[in-house]
Amino acid sequence: RFDEAALSACEGCLREHAQERASAATASSREHASALEAAKRRQSQLDAVRGRADQAERGLREVVNELQAGRAAVSEAESAQRRHRENFGALAREAAAKSAELRSLERLLASFRSLTSDGSADAA
């Protein structure tokens, strides 16, 4: 009877141990599944963040390209403005020279007229 009682006690211990191990395995399996699900969520979040970062990078590149194009346009406009200013200065100087030349020619014409007026009065 002692053997049967010892065997029965041993079986009870083994059964309890097996149940504890099964419960621990079930809990571990749940934790593992939960960790996998959390990892999937984190991966999904990471993919979304990477997608937004890629989109932001593309947007930034576009802005940088537009900025460079704008700077080039401003530089070209400044160069054109300088050329126009130089051309305007040259034209203003040329106009001043032509004005002086015109005044000189008008004085010369006036002198000729006075000579011809005086000459026709002398001839009469």
Topology:
Layout: H1 2-123
Protein architecture, described:
- The protein has 124 residues and is mostly helical.
- It has one domain (1-114).
- Helices cover 98% and strands 0% of the residues.
- The protein contains 1 helix and no strands.
- The termini are far apart.
- The model has no long low-confidence stretch (mean pLDDT 92).
- Residues 21-45 are annotated as: Disordered.
- Residues 29-40 have a biased composition (Basic and acidic residues).
Number of strands: 0
The domain tally reads 1
Order of helices and strands: H
Which whole number gives the mean pLDDT? 92
For the largest beta-sheet, the strand count, sense and barrel status come to:
none
Helix and strand composition category: mainly alpha
Low-confidence stretches: none
Strand composition percent: under 5%
Number of helices: 1
Over the alpha carbons, how many angstroms does the gyration radius reach?
52 Å
Quick one: overall form? rod-shaped
Helix coverage percent: over 70%
